[in-house]
């Protein structure tokens, strides 16, 4: 059967869509599906909101078109189908001394998805965004299949990086991998006692990979406390990766009640000794810590959750602090909260990154949390910051317009590649990205 | 010693996962099937995952004349020769009811076609004193049911064939693993109603790989299908004939 009618959601599970999904296993099957016109494509649906949803319509899941096509060990250039998962590429190539140059927080993200969201990783301050390492890609547009590179079609390329799949179906890409020493990470973990210390360490860090876990429930003196992790790749041996586990059922609502989260965060903070420590980990444990727990989104129960992620310019750090104060005071946050310094690197017109600080916090899907996120979004707009399409499920079109100054250019390119508007998804409709202001 | 796997029906997602597993072990893989273009991409993928050799080769279970070509290609490889059979076809029973002439095709795809290839390969395996045959059957072959008994009958025939081949190859240092998968998440089952406890092709491939390693004779994958089928096989016929499962 080609088409399966089902109700599905993004990773956050708060928004759902009902429609038909096809999952071709061969190029021939995909070509046949697209013979009557373009259909939006999705990967592993790791975007949190509605970027990969098409309610009432059709969507093509690309996850089985996931083959590695060619690799040149002299240059580190890998050609791969769009459905290939980043974690699999890392596992296959790290022992040979190569890693995807940019890896998002989950190894289940596909190459196509990483392009469509122009994702960033823990090395954004040095390596920039995913799209900056895409040398070219094969794209199925309304007028047929073509190779798109920054040289051949600068505008179309820039509209495709972070372009939410609106320029065509991404078939494959040539990626410049990054040389690494081996498949081991040497990680230094240090407690950060509060906001100022955290920011100054993020600013001063010279590590290749940096990420901060932040205790979004701590208030007062402890506001902004957390753990700074700095990592470098290395060669050597590590203990075998622990077995993956799965969350089998939806957790009850009290699982993430405020006292539980506070207690968990205290433990998580104290886990790292006061003087810090250096540990050796398999690469997967450092880059994709939550992938060990399959279906962890079920911890939020069947109502699902939202992630708020914004980036603000360096000078607006105080605004970010105010956001964190509002979050901590609300008592609504979950343990998953991340603070990072970003560099300026971005590859597309709708790319998220800007030089500054990014904060990401998960909230169970409740009225109070939605109201808080709405306030945080307004604060982001006021600070000249940006919301991340890979995470967003609540913003409104008017907010987003101010954040993405190249939106009009993007719309013009998209109109050429998909003139009939067949590739629109729930997110594109919700944020009115393809309609004039 | 180096090993080469002939994978029949390599375009299926279960076969693809198995080919990748074999590739990661450093074995050579001959990817046999009808979609040459698709298999060429899989061959690239297998080489990048560590296969000593990976090549696409034409194979159609209904084209007897092509089989010798496969055997010759296998014979040209040094070391142990092994084969994994993933072919089979399952038209809806209602189509077969309307057109009984579909039956020989189902039996050829699921049983007699691959059995002839294995029969031709067996002397080579015996001569090299080793190698493994993996035959993928189906839990549908354990008992004839109203929903797909032609397919089930073909798979039952194939399972009996594999049992005999095991008896033969064991004497020459070889081995045969009969695999009976339950519901697997493939394009064949995508969107079918009534699926439950569906396993990923990667999980099935991993189970098969372990069974090859441990020289298991008959495996169900995932394992619990052994118990489900144990119950189904033991329902007395006078009750079973009235059931619709």
Supply the key terms.
heterodimer; A: 437 residues; alpha+beta; Uridine Diphospho-n-acetylenolpyruvylglucosamine Reductase, domain 3; Vanillyl-alcohol Oxidase, Chain A, domain 3; 2 domains; eight-stranded antiparallel sheet; six-stranded antiparallel sheet; 20 strands; 26% helix; globular; B: 245 residues; alpha/beta; Rossmann fold; seven-stranded parallel sheet; 7 strands
Going by CATH, the homologous superfamily of the largest domain in chain A would be: FAD-linked oxidases, C-terminal domain
Total count of strands of chain B? 7
- Discrete helix count of chain B: 9
Strand content of chain B: 15-25%
Give the CATH class of chain B: Alpha Beta
| Largest protein-protein interface | A-B, 21 and 18 residues
Q: In CATH, what is the class of the largest domain in chain A?
A: Alpha Beta
Q: How many extended strands of chain A?
A: 20
Major sheet characteristics of chain A: 8 strands, antiparallel
Tell me, briefly, the overall form of chain A.
Answer: globular
Structural summary, described in words:
- With 437 residues, chain A is an alpha+beta fold.
- Chain A folds into two domains: 68-181, Uridine Diphospho-n-acetylenolpyruvylglucosamine Reductase, domain 3; 184-395, FAD-linked oxidases, C-terminal domain (Vanillyl-alcohol Oxidase, Chain A, domain 3), CATH 3.40.462.
- Chain A is 26% helix and 27% strand.
- Chain A contains 13 helices and 20 strands.
- In chain A, strands 15-11-13-12-18-19-17-20 form an eight-stranded antiparallel β-sheet. In chain A, strands 5, 6, 7, 8, 9 and 10 form a six-stranded antiparallel β-sheet that branches. In chain A, strands 1-2-4-3 form a four-stranded mixed β-sheet, with no helix packed on it.
- In chain A, strand 8 and strand 9 (144-148) form a beta hairpin.
- In chain A, helix 5 crosses helix 12.
- The longest helix of chain A has 16 residues, at 367-382.
- Chain A is globular, with a radius of gyration of 21 Å.
- The model of chain A has no long low-confidence stretch (mean pLDDT 94).
- With 245 residues, chain B is an alpha/beta fold.
- Chain B has a single domain (3-240), classed as Rossmann fold (3-Layer(aba) Sandwich), CATH 3.40.50.720.
- Chain B has helices at residues 13-24, 36-48, 67-75, 93-98, 103-127, 149-170, 201-213, 225-234, 237-240; strands at residues 3-8, 28-33, 54-58, 80-85, 132-136, 175-181, 218-221.
- Chain B has a seven-stranded parallel β-sheet, sandwiched between helices.
- Chain B is globular.
- The model of chain B has no long low-confidence stretch (mean pLDDT 95).
């Amino acid at each position: 059967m080609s088409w399966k009618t089902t109700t599905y959601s993004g990773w956050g599970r708060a928004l759902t869509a009902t429609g038909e999904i096809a999952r071709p296993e061969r190029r021939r099957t995909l070509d046949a599906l697209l013979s009557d016109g373009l259909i939006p494509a999705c990967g592993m649906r790791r975007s949190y909101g509605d970027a990969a949803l098409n309610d009432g319509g059709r969507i093509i899941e690309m996850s089985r078109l996931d083959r590695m096509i060619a690799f040149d060990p002299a240059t580190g250039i890998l050609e791969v189908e769009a459905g290939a998962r980043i974690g699999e590429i890392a596992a296959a190539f790290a022992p040979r001394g190569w890693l995807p140059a940019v890896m998002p927080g989950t190894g289940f993200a596909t190459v196509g998805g990483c392009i469509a969201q122009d994702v960033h990783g823990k090395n954004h301050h040095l390596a920039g965004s995913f799209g900056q390492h895409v040398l070219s890609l094969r794209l199925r547009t309304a007028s047929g299949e073509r190779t798109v590179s920054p040289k051949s079609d600068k505008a179309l390329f820039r509209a495709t990086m972070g372009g939410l799949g609106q320029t065509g179906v991404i078939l494959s890409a040539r990626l410049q991998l990054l040389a690494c020493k081996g498949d081991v990470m040497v990680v230094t973990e240090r407690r950060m006692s509060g906001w100022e210390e955290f920011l100054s360490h993020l600013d001063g860090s010279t590590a290749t990979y940096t990420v901060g876990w932040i205790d979004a429930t701590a208030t007062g003196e402890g506001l902004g406390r957390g753990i700074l992790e700095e990592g470098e790749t290395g060669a050597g041996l590590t203990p075998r990766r622990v077995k993956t586990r799965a969350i089998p059922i939806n957790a009850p609502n009290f699982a993430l009640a405020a006292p539980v989260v506070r207690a968990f965060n205290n433990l998580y903070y104290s886990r790292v000794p006061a003087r810090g420590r250096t540990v050796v980990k398999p690469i997967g444990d450092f880059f994709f810590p939550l992938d060990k727990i399959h279906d962890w989104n079920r911890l939020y129960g069947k109502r699902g959750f939202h992630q708020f992620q914004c980036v603000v310019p360096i000078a607006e750090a105080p605004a970010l602090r105010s956001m964190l104060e509002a979050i901590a005071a609300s008592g609504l946050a979950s343990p998953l909260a991340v603070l990072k310094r970003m560099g300026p690197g971005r590859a597309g017109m709708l790319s998220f990154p800007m030089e500054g600080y990014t904060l990401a916090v998960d909230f169970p899907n409740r009225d109070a949390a939605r109201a808080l996120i709405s306030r945080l979004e307004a604060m982001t707009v006021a600070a000249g910051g940006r919301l991340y399409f890979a995470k967003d499920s609540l913003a409104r079109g008017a907010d987003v317009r101010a954040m993405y100054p190249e939106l009009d250019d993007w719309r013009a390119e998209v109109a050429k590649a998909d003139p009939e508007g067949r590739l629109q998804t729930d997110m594109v409709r919700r944020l009115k990205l393809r309609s004039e202001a | 010693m180096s090993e080469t796997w002939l994978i029949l029906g390599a375009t299926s997602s279960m076969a693809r996962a198995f080919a990748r597993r074999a590739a990661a072990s450093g074995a050579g893989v001959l990817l046999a099937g009808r979609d040459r273009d698709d298999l060429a991409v899989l061959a690239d993928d297998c080489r990048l995952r560590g296969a000593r050799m990976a090549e696409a080769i034409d194979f159609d279970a209904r084209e007897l004349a092509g089989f010798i070509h496969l055997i010759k290609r296998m014979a040209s490889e040094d070391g142990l020769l092994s084969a994994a059979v993933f072919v089979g076809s399952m038209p809806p029973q209602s189509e077969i009811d309307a057109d009984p002439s579909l039956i020989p095709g189902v039996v050829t795809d699921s049983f007699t076609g691959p059995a002839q290839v294995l029969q031709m390969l067996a002397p080579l395996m015996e001569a090299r004193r080793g190698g493994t045959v993996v035959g993928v059957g189906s839990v549908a072959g354990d008992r004839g049911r109203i929903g797909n008994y032609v397919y089930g009958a073909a798979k039952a025939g194939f399972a009996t064939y594999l049992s005999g081949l095991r008896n033969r190859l064991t004497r020459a240092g070889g081995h045969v693993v009969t695999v009976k998968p339950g519901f697997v998440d493939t394009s064949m089952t995508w969107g079918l109603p009534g699926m439950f406890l569906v396993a990923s092709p990667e999980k099935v491939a991993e189970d098969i790989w372990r069974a090859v390693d441990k020289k298991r004779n008959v495996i169900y994958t995932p394992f619990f299908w052994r118990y489900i089928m144990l119950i189904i096989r033991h329902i007395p016929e006078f009750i079973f004939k009235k059931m619709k499962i």
